[in-house]
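Provenance and format

Records in this collection were gathered into a single text stream. Each protein contributes a sequence line and a token line. The two records reproduced below are adjacent in the stream.
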Amino acid sequence: ELQLLPPSPAPQSLYDLLLGEDPTERRPEIHTQLENYIAEPLCRRSLSPLDWWRAKEHRFPAVAQLARQYLAVPATAAPATLALAPRDPPTALRRAALGPEHLDHILFLHQNCDYLERLRGGGAGGRR
């Protein structure tokens, strides 16, 4: 007996594979939250951004989650003794010489390495 396979989905660009589906298409409430957030008046400089988000996160839960993820201060991976050392090791000097564009590319590749390996069929990618 001959079985027909379902039609294969349209090919996706690497951009689509990395970013996935646009959540605003699936969940219109996210689009509404973004519009309301953009229309929100600016907060006073005397108000702490943390207090502002604490007061407003119920109005913009999806935006608040993004703010938590992307606006948080990144922690250092270096031990305090190394971070506060009087002389910088040679690797720190080279790292400091990286331009912001190169650093962005390196961080992007590092964050998406496992995902790209899974897409290529390279297994689970045991890092992280």
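Adjacent record:
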Amino acid sequence: MAARMAMRGERLSAPRPAARRCAAAAPRPATVAQAVQEPSVSRPAPFAPEGTPEVPPKHLPSRPRRNRRSPTVRGAFSETVLTPANFIMPVFVHDGEEDIPIDSMPGQARLGWKTGLLRQVREARSVGVNSVVVFPKTPDNLKSYVGEEAFSPDGLAQRSISLLKDTFPDLEVYTDVALDPYSLDGHDGIVRSDGVVMNDETVDFLCKQAVSQARAGADCVSPSDMMDGRVGAIREALDAEGFSNVSIMSYTAKYASAFYGPFRDALASAPRPGTAERVIPKDKKTYQMDPANYREALREAALDEIEGADIMMVKPALAYLDIVRALRENTNLPISAYHVSGEYAMLKAAAERGWLDEREATLETLLSMRRAGADLILTYCAIDAARWLQE
């Protein structure tokens, strides 16, 4: 290029010296401290306890603990949220005025349906729990071998539901659909003389029970009986009577568990001994699920969804979190988990002996159910947990 410019007679200028190019630049201070005349703030260095080994820092590209270093950071990254809106509070009612404590469930009682029931629901609502499920303690003189008291329009459950909806119109009222609280045999279905729990005949009565509860004002009926085909039959019966807006929360995966003992104390609904004339199964294993089974829960879930369930439940919850997760991953329906009486009683007993911090252990237990995939949790801890969450 220089040769071409020379041929054209253009003058080449010499490059400027570097010193000349920088001559106008202002001198820079050697340090920031020279520019800003303020005293520096030094923080005392933390120190390790005597005896701590001296090791060079490990070169770790990722340190997960950085995302757990403070409450603010942990709160920002928390993946699961537990609120009172997730709770359904079970309530036991009896046909009397005074509350009757349940020895095997500390803090729980059979509530007078006109008195204690309203008081407890009012307290629950004050801390943000606005969903309840009603379990009636049927008087023995109203029980029979077929359990027809289950669909009496003047039954204890029906009166309790109606009173709740009249008193708290926006309360979400769930019910229990099964025959065991009304049966002399203590089973969820009608028992034949040879000990067989009859399926289709039981479903006929369950449909009548669900419709009677809907007439009383129930928002959601909850078949806990584990009879085959009952969800579809109940959906049909409700729709035929004009209750298409009443939901069904199916006990989809209800296991034959050892954790139900305190509940059966509360309702006096355990299976009764048989006689020479009538065989009464000693347990409920011919209709409730085997605790060993996982795939069977997926089969039950597929059937319940096809038949029209709006919510699917796993019971018990704590020992079956894998089943909660399985249902969560195989359906878009809401999932509920029942924190059952035995699980509640274990927490209470350990807390009473000082073996566990009741608040921390309870909230951790409930959070684990949410983390597994439950949208709703039926829990006897509802009021306490809601109050602790607000602290």
